[in-house]
Amino acid sequence: MTRPQLGLVIVGLGASLAPLDIAVNVALPAITGHFKLALGDVQWLVICYVLVYGSLMLVAGKLGDLFGHRLLFRLGLVVSAIGCAACAIAPDWPLFLWARAAQGIGTALALSCTPALATSLFPESQRTKALAGFASTMALAAALGPFLGGVLVELWGWPAVYWVRVPIALVTLALSGFLPAPKPESRPFDAAGALLLAACMSTLLLSLVLSQRREVPGLWAAALFVVALALVALYVRHANRVPEPIIRPALFADARFTVPNVLNVLANLAGFSILLLTPYYLTNVLKLTALGSGIVLAMAFAGSLTGAPLSAFLVRRIGQRRTVFAGVAFVGLGLLPLAFTGVNTPVLVVAFLLVLEGIGQGLLTVAYTDIVTATLPPRDRGVAGSLSLLTRTLGIVSGASVLTALQARGAEGFAGMAGFLAGYRLAFLVAGGGLLAVLLLSCLWPRVWSNKEATRSG
Known about the structure:
Elements lengths: L3 H12 L7 H12 L8 H25 L1 H21 L3 H19 L2 H7 L6 H30 L3 H4 L1 H11 L15 H20 L7 H22 L15 H31 L4 H29 L1 H16 L11 H29 L5 H31 L4 H27 L16
């Protein structure tokens, strides 16, 4: 492409549809009131969306590799626009949930191919630069999401958080003709493997989601988790017998590939503590206004905006793996001190720690995605990009379950604000300290962090 920066803006605009969904969190009280829902029922708004796009992400990435990333990106934009419009005009709750599922399909189709599209715009020598630009647009959209949601709900009501994304999708669709569309190779599509993988991902995500709900017996979530493991075993057996699987299980036999994937899951699990628990700390403990809390929380995303280009710089200087190591360390070092905050902690200290954590996430995201992209063959760029996004999703969904349980356990035996603070501190102690402990444990495999090039599979 003669103007790759323009292409990166187009790709980033389409990818922003996913992080802009954070605006929906601001609209949850209004949506609950409109459909006359119990507080617990509104969680299905998130569940339907995450289950669908999480389970289809790898399959959509493979479809992009086979039939063209731009084609899948365009289809995803169309489905996303239809899904968002359907959410805004849904007359009742069941139809609203079906519309959210359609939105999830659109997100899977469009988002899975965006890293591959971003790297296709630049020469291979500038791959990390492309990934840094892509990560920056995602962080910017995530930072704007809460503010945009508040303004839209205040001025035009909750449907506006969906309507606003319709023109974004359509404008991106109109501009997508500028993106390159190389002719894909003629390769078979493993339909049976796609079904097994989608069933495995949806079952795993559902087990994690249900484990958060007190009204659902824990045995159900455990049973679904066992089913997910059985589906993984079936997929591995199937994938080893076909010439063109969705993703090769043999990749995960190499610790140099598996450890960064695991750490990306854990870093996103730990980092979700900020979005899940810190808003309550800022509002109820430090007594900040909603605007003040939003500004402080935005510091984490501001850190990511700084960390993404810094990651591209460090990858050239010290290598992908050491940059990943530094990113995970920064996330842990940003989270662990939050376990020792209280009523008298200065807001600037909290903001600094959030910036530190955000820088770590920016460093990790770019360098980790670069590792995955370099390990898989160029013809599987869609699978590589979707895998990097899927591990992030797994971390966030599992984080919601694990961190909620930790907060509740820490609050036992205390009342009121003392209970919240005790649970808050335990959650951050385990999130930050546990992440750093796993990072140190990974040093038992020193070649994981060496600068030696990973062996490309396939």
